[in-house]
Automatic annotation (TrEMBL), chain A:
The keyword Transmembrane applies. GO terms for cellular component: plasma membrane. The chain crosses the membrane at residues 31-52, 64-89. InterPro entries: DUF485, Inner_membrane_assoc. It comes from Sphingomonas populi. Keywords: Membrane, Transmembrane, Transmembrane helix. The keyword ATP-binding does not apply. This is DUF485 domain-containing protein. It comes from the Bacteria. Pfam families: DUF485 (PF04341).
TrEMBL record, chain B:
This is Cation/acetate symporter ActP. Belongs to the sodium:solute symporter (SSF) (TC 2.A.21) family. One of its GO terms (molecular function) is acetate transmembrane transporter activity. InterPro entries: Na/Glc_symporter_sf (IPR038377), Na/solute_symporter (IPR001734), Na/solute_symporter_CS (IPR018212), Sodium:Solute_Symporter (IPR050277). It comes from Sphingomonas populi. The keyword Glycosyltransferase does not apply.
């Protein structure tokens, strides 16, 4: 799948060897793997809690009817959206700004 | 009857939330023809056909057909939600909550938690490298033939299982809601889907999905407003009254007051859904990683101009899907409170009239009368159409773009010819979908959606991740390793209880768990790694040497196309 205009290989090489590029890729990758790990660990813990300690999950909160399970479940829904928001905020903000500055400076 | 309902529920639990398969568990009773619903549905069809006609005038090039010429991240997020939230999430999850309480939320969370994984690992790189299909990305630096062939086969498998479940579910559901015979219902769905995709391509498909998502979210929000106003906008009151209702139902079956109270309270905690932690985790991993390998979802990334909008699409998709599942949870509890003792909705034993997925339909009637019931029925039908249109488009592009243009014509296909091939494929797929819908009418298709997710998680996902992130990955590793992942998911499903015991009638399953993903996903990754490491062919050297250039383009988006370029 080659682009119709040939890629500018010399420019690509200059970008690839630029320390700002190396740092950007490293930072962004570290951040995305960290968030992936958080997502997987939190979700796995949630499922494990359900599998291994049902009585705890069924316990009501503050003497009412609402249970720990319902609160944690709702928190999972909100947390999933929130972790996406954190990534998009950072990637579309500071990472994209660094990338734009880098691409602009290397013609 | 309660026993029957429960076993039907368990049977359907595997494939519950993203398809209409839930509608087929339990007895299906055709209703008298519901004219309000049919009129509302005709209104929806009218609008979507008008959109399709408008889209058709602007669908001239192959790029228009595959990507729709570009939409914003917000629009794409809504379309993704429209693609992902199905009639059965709506009917199936609410009914499961109506029956068992909390357990329904476990599915909902599993289906949502795949989206951050897509966002963190593949979204922006996919958008930066790809043009029309995810195979563009998976095969970027490899020999096109083997990797594209694998991707196309895998796409067709995943889409077929997904589609069969949708078509059968659609037929049953429409029979239930509108009183239309099964065959007519299937033909209407297959025919309309063909028209959308054939004439309007991705542009019409996107708009059908957006319109449907808005209708579904508005309808469900209105219902939730009705429920919450009934309980004074207090969740505590809602839950307390639901527990009281369940306790009263248990008392009526002759339990002691203490046992009845315990049974009533049981809806607030996890119940029988997760008995075996391995199955639960495996199922969870299939949902989580499968989302990142579903071809019709991945294809949606190429409808936005750049990585920035691709990220926004996912954020919006997650917002709407999360909101939708929160609504279904409230609706399930609302149904317990509002319809449990009404003889118009439930029989003497407390089972739902009209089939055991009708909870939200009865709730719609209880809150908004016949007109609103009609609206919600039309929404359910629209939902199925939007999902099958997206599936068909991704299968058509796998055949025309990956097989025809890239493998057979070696990348020098005339665009006009490629477009013609994709349109012919769409017609054939429409016909195939109708035939499959009829053939599988009486079969248990409930496991097929979970199989589709498991296949996507074990084949597409490892290939995509390894080709994007590991420089050592080679053509052989991607093509054969992916195939091994795919086959192990398929094989383990065949020897698992859902087929080995339930279909073939053997006494014990060879593989005891309900989902293969916990084993087949690592198998896929391991096979790709092993075959790549052992690969000493000249091609492997080219593959490895091409990684830095691919990596740079995937990280920066330079030297690649926007969706409208061609």
């Amino acid at each position: 799948m080659a682009p119709s205009s040939p890629p500018d290989l010399a420019r690509e090489a200059r970008i690839a060897s630029d320390p700002r590029y190396v740092a950007l890729v490293r930072d962004r990758q570290r951040f995305s793997w960290m968030l992936t790990a958080i997502t997987v660990i939190v979700y796995t813990s949630f499922i494990s809690l359900i599998a291994f300690d049902k009585p705890l999950m069924a316990q009501p909160i503050a003497g009412g009817t609402t249970s720990i399970a319902v609160v944690l479940g709702a928190a999972m829904l909100v947390g999933t959206v929130a972790i996406c928001a954190v990534y998009v905020w950072r990637a579309n903000g500071s990472y994209d700004a660094r990338l734009a500055a880098l691409l602009e400076s290397i013609a | 009857m309660a026993r029957l309902t429960r076993s039907a529920l368990l049977l359907a639990l595997l494939g519950w939330a993203t398809c209409a398969d839930a509608a087929i568990s339990g007895a299906v009773v055709a209703r008298s023809t519901n004219w309000t619903a049919i009129l509302m549905f005709l209104g929806f069809v009218g609008i979507t056909l008008w959109v399709t006609a408008a889209a058709a005038r602007r669908t001239r090039t192959i790029s228009d057909f595959y990507t729709g010429g570009g939409i914003t991240g917000f629009q794409n997020g809504l379309a993704m939600a429209g693609d992902y939230c199905s009639a059965a999430s709506f009917l199936g999850i609410t009914s499961q909550i109506f029956n068992d309480g909390f357990d329904g939320l476990i599915y909902a969370i599993g289906f949502l938690v795949g989206w951050p994984i897509v966002l963190f690992l593949v979204a922006e790189k996919l958008r930066n490298l790809g043009r029309f299909t995810f195979a563009d990305v998976a095969s970027y630096r490899f020999l096109q033939g083997p990797v594209r062939s694998f991707s196309a086969v895998s796409t067709l498998l995943v889409v077929s299982f997904y589609l069969i479940a949708q078509m059968v579910g659609a037929g049953q559901l429409i029979q239930l809601l509108f009183g239309l015979p099964y065959l007519y219902a299937i033909i209407v769905v297959g025919g309309l889907m063909m028209v959308y995709v054939l004439f309007g391509g991705m542009r019409a498909t996107s708009w059908v999905q957006i319109i449907k998502a808005v209708m579904l979210l508005c309808g469900a929000s209105f219902l939730v407003f009705g429920v919450m106003s009934h309980v004074g906008f207090s969740f505590e009151t809602l839950f307390a009254r639901a527990v009281a209702v369940k306790t009263k139902l248990a008392l009526e079956t002759g339990l002691s007051p203490a046992d009845a109270a315990a049974k009533g309270r049981a809806i607030m905690g996890p119940g029988g859904f997760i008995k075996d932690p391995i199955s639960a985790l495996s199922f969870g991993f299939a949902l989580m990683l499968g989302t990142a390998g579903l071809p019709h979802i991945l294809m949606r990334f190429f409808t936005v101009p750049d990585a920035r909008e691709a990220r926004k699409s996912i954020l919006w998709a997650t917002v709407w899907i999360g909101y939708f599942y929160a609504l279904t949870f409230i609706l399930g509890f609302g149904a317990i409170v509002l319809i449990s003792f009404n003889p118009a909705y439930v029989d003497g034993a407390g089972a739902l009239l009209g089939g055991n997925n009708m909870a939200v339909m009865h709730l719609a009637h209880a809150i908004g009368g016949n007109v609103f019931l009609g609206f919600i029925s039309a929404v359910a039908f629209a939902t199925i159409l939007a999902v099958v249109a997206g599936l068909t488009l991704s299968a058509a592009s796998a055949i025309s773009h990956d097989i025809y243009a890239s493998v057979i014509r070696k990348g020098d296909a005339e665009p006009a010819k490629e477009l013609r091939v994709s349109r012919i494929t769409t017609v054939l797929l429409g016909i195939a979908a109708i035939i499959l819908g009829v053939v599988f009418q009486k079969q248990n298709v409930a496991f097929m959606v979970s199989l589709a997710f498991a296949l996507a998680a074990s084949g597409n996902f490892p290939v995509l991740v390894m080709s994007l992130l590991w420089k050592g990955c080679t053509t052989k590793g991607a093509a054969w390793g992916g195939a091994i992942g795919l086959l192990s998911a398929f094989g383990l499903t065949v020897v698992s209880p859902v087929i080995w015991v339930a279909v073939f009638g053997f006494e014990h399953a060879i593989f005891p768990y309900s989902s293969p993903a916990l084993f087949s996903v690592p198998a896929g990754f391991f096979a790709i790694w092993l075959i790549s490491v052992l690969d000493r062919s000249p091609r492997a050297a080219i593959d490895r040497a091409a990684y830095p250039a691919q990596r740079l383009r995937s990280e920066t988006g330079i030297d690649v196309h926007g969706p409208a370029a061609h």
